[in-house]
Amino acid sequence: xxxxxxxxxxxxxxVSLVALPAAAGxxxxxxxxxxxxxxxxxxxxxxxxxxSEAELQGTWTDRRGTADLDDVKYADGKLxxxxxxxFQGNSxxxxxxxxxxxDTMNVTMTTPQGEREFTAxxxx
Length: 124
Prior knowledge:
This protein is α+β, with helices and mostly antiparallel strands.
């Protein structure tokens, strides 16, 4: 009987270890990095999504600092969120729509001047 329990335990551990890499690459929770080209040069971006995918929160960090993301939603590989920005005394909201495919996120940012696209990668 002890041998059967030991084999059962080892089987459960093995299945868990095999499934772990696949689960880690799915969804949007975690840290993401990107470089976005702007009229003012390259901008290094870090996005961090936490919580369950039903109730996500996120932050955006770039050369201007860190800001909370608003209205973060993720379902079926589609991510959307908003970010409040102040620039030269003006306040506005940027909208983001992204498609997540494994460790790659293709993002479209909507600004008052139009759309800009960039690609983010899951941080290692």
